[in-house]
Amino acid sequence: MPASVGSDKIERVLGIYTKLMNGEVVNKAEEAVNYNVNERSIQRDIDDIRNYMEQTIPDSGIVNDVIYDRNQKGFRLEKIYNLKLTNSEVLAICKILLDSRAFTKKEMKGMLDKLIDCCVPKANQKLVRDLIKNEEFHYIEPHHKTVFIDRMWEIGKAIQENRYIEIKYRGMQGSTDKTRKLKPLAIMFSEYYFYLVAFIDDEKVKENFNVINDSYPTIYRIDRLKDYKVLEERYQIPYSSRFEEGEFRKRIQFMFGGKLRKIRFKYTGYSIEAVLDRLPTAKVEKEEMHEDGKRKIYTISAEVFGDGVDMWINGQNNIVEI
Predict the structure, then answer these.
(1) Is 191 in contact with 255 (CB distance < 8 Å)?
(2) Mean pLDDT taken over the chain
(3) Is the distance from CB of 300 to CB of 285 less than 8 angstroms?
(4) SS3 of 207, please?
(5) Which string of DSSP letters, residue by residue, matches 244-264?
(6) How far apart are CA 150 and CA 128, in angstroms?
(7) Order of strands, edge to edge, in the sheet holding 320-321?
(8) CATH 3.30.70: does it fit domain 3-82?
(9) So what's the pLDDT on residue 93?
(10) What pLDDT score does 209 carry?
(11) What letters, b where the CB count within 10 A reaches 16 and e where it falls short, cover 31-42?
């Protein structure tokens, strides 16, 4: 190919590419006249631009496409989405994962490696790895050392399909395994562990519980499931009685199940935000200045499920008074 021909093609491709990046519509017939070539050459140029954009996805993280717009009778650039997270987003997610201490060390390393490889441009991967490598090296895995991700996925599918599950489970104070037939409702995470929230489907079993009303589900640590089986049988819950995971999350502390309670207390600490973040249903009813002139006394009310909130209150020393 003569040098001039190659230069002409490069100039033509760059010109079309610049128009597309500037949001302009490229008309094949007009560009063919403009560059004194046939329309097939312009089509090949557009195909080359498409191929280039596809090849740059792994490094740039940006997925774009050149599409034909019938209304405008020409080609335009469609910005679909950014495939990769920003460096700061990936760093934040890695830090949250490490702090969760929810997985074995091998699982955690695998997740972090995949997250960085898939979501961070290659040029920045070393920087992100350097920022987490010390915490990753000193990562302490949970004592149960159980790998349960696949189990959690199977339970999640059972929830979506409204299928009963049967589990063998040993609680914190139990000495033997118990078999339960459950209506699985949700998978939740709290304080290092993943939990299954479910309704018990055996009336005789429920007689031994303080909570026997279906509106109050039971809670099981997923890593403590000795065995589980997804059944073919399906259950139905009326829409008006559906389990609302978000509302339950607002009212549950340390994943201790139980009846819905209303509590009221006075708080004299320095960070009211810490209380409101810990108890999402909390409302400040009254605030007044403490006698030391440095703090305020907040009267707070909240709705909570179960006895988990008592653990939090007992850990607040003398700054919380029921």
Answers:
(1) yes
(2) 86
(3) yes
(4) coil
(5) -HHHHHHHBSTT----EEEEE
(6) 28
(7) 283-289, 296-305, 260-267, 320-321
(8) no
(9) 95
(10) 52
(11) bbeebebeeebb
* Residue 293 burial (CB count, 10 A): 6
> What integer pLDDT is reported at residue 154 of this predicted model?
96
Amino acid at 164: Y
β-strands 296-305, 62-69 pairing: unpaired
Distance, in Å, from the CA atom of 198 to the CA atom of 294, rounded to the nearest integer, reads: 46
Q: How far apart are CA 68 and CA 27, in angstroms?
A: 9
Q: Which residues contact 45 (CB under 8 A, 6 or more apart)?
A: 9, 12, 13, 16
Distance CA 46, CA 26 (A): 9
- Per-residue pLDDT averaged across 92-109, rounded? 95
Q: What is the DSSP string of 67-114?
A: EEETTTTEEEEEEEEE-SPPHHHHHHHHHHHHHH--S-HHHHHHHHHH
Considering 57-66, 107-116, 214-223, 267-276, the range whose residues carry the highest mean pLDDT is 107-116
Classified by CATH at the fold level, domain 149-243 comes out as SH3 type barrels. (2.30.30)
- In this prediction, residues 205-231 reach a mean pLDDT of 74
Question: Is 19 in contact with 26 (CB distance < 8 Å)?
Answer: yes
* pLDDT at residue 207 tops 80: no
Beta bridge partners of 188: 195
Which amino acid is located at 105 in the chain?
Answer: K
Confidence of residue 265 (pLDDT cuts 50, 70, 90): very high
CA distance 302 to 17: 59
The pLDDT, as a whole number, for residue 317 is: 79
Q: Name the residue among 185, 219, 184, 223 with its Cα closest to residue 103.
A: 223
Query: Strand, coil or helix: what is 148?
Result: coil
The rounded Cα 12 to chain-centroid distance in angstroms is: 45
Q: E strand or H helix at 197, and its extent?
A: strand 193-200
Q: Locate tokens 């290092």: which residue?
A: 192
